[in-house]
Amino acid sequence: MKELIASCVVLPLLLSMIPQYGIDVGNDRTMNRVDNIVHSAKETAREDGCFTSENINTMTERLEELGFTSDEITVTVTTNPVYRKDSFDEKNMIDYSVGVPIKKIIAANEFFGIADDENKMIYYVTGSVASELLESE
Amino acid sequence: MKSILISLATIIVLLTFTVFQIDNDSFMREQEHLKRAADDCSAAASLYYDQEQFAMGTKVFNKAVGNEAVLYLIKRNLNLNSDLTFDSPYFNQAFDYYVYYFDGDETMTEYKNGQLVAEKQDAKFPYSFREELTGYTQEVKAATVIVTIDAGPFNYRISFINDPECVRSSGYEYVNY
């Protein structure tokens, strides 16, 4: 009886650790793959001078393969061509910001009193890249 | 009582593993972010060069403009503050960045945080370059820009782990075909 009571105290804590490993591994893998996908699209955009619709669609399709719906993915990128210049100007950069939801951070959030709304976040990949597109004369 | 103590010890060990796993994953991810930022910076800095010299057949990089582009991209792509610090418990010092320009006129110029550190006039190609911070070596055969970003020690929350240095390097080379 004594051991049963002791088990009831510690078992939930122990059990909450096990799925936490899985969620951490899954979230890290997702974030790494999102980084790779956006990085790959960014390299294409560097040559095109902007994010073309084809590039955005390819990037979105690859992100959807990770389990996200198109509504969940936020894409804010430069779509008008930016040309390579001899002088640096912040306005002549190709900007990108891609966000995907991380739906669960703590495995046993209810046990620790964390609401579901607090247990999620949006992972953003943001940055700029210089265009290599030459302006045709 | 014994079972509670053993279970609590197990929970502490499992917590330690979990915290280490999260910190280690974050460290690997930050390394990749640094690498990509260094890629973008070296590519951007290599876009700006002296047009007249280029018309004569020599690529000489415009260091002032290149450094401006590098600083902007480091701040933007790594979400740094204006003083190059990062709002994260993992880093508690400002980032340093080094830019190495290997011009076509066999000049090597080194900048640290936008300030000129060294200039070498007789850097003939192929030039054996060794980056002191990372130990990275490369045979530089053509006009190249190499950017190194040093974020400093990565603060693991587990106290008995030695904090590793988070530093990555990347270069952009123009090869004549």
Keywords, please?
heterodimer, A: 137 residues, alpha+beta, 3-stranded antiparallel beta sheet, 3 strands, 43% helix, B: 177 residues, 5-stranded antiparallel beta sheet, two-stranded antiparallel ribbon, 3 helices
Describe the overall structure.
Chain A is an alpha+beta fold. Chain A is built from two helices and three strands, in the order H-H-E-E-E. Chain A has a three-stranded antiparallel beta sheet with strand order 1-2-3, covered by helices on one side. Chain B contains three helices and seven strands; from the N terminus they run H-H-H-E-E-E-E-E-E-E. Chain B is elongated. The termini of chain B are far apart. The mean pLDDT of chain B is 91. The A-B interface holds A 3, 6-7, 9-11, 13-14, 17, 20-21, 24-25, 28, 31-32, 35, 39, 46, 84, 86-88, 90, 93, 126-130, 132 and B 1, 3-4, 7-8, 10-11, 14-15, 17-18, 21-22, 25, 29, 32-33, 36-37, 40, 43-44, 47-48, 51, 62, 65, 68-69, 72-73, 76-77, 79.
Nearest-angstrom radius of gyration of chain B? 21 Å
Q: What would you call the shape of chain A?
A: rod-shaped
Rg on CA atoms of chain A, Å: 22 Å
Strand content of chain A: 15-25%
Oligomer: heterodimer
> How helix-rich are the residues of chain B, as a percent range?
25-40%
Structural class of chain A: alpha+beta
Tally the beta strands of chain A: 3
Q: What is the H-and-E element order of chain B?
A: HHHEEEEEEE
Strand order of the largest sheet of chain A: 1-2-3
The largest β sheet of chain B comes out as: 5 strands, antiparallel
Shape of chain B: elongated
Taking pLDDT < 50 over at least 5 consecutive residues as the criterion, the unreliable ranges of chain A are none
Strand content of chain B: 25-35%
Can you describe this structure in just a few lines?
The complex is a heterodimer of chains A (137) and B (177). With 137 residues, chain A is α+β, with helices and mostly antiparallel strands.
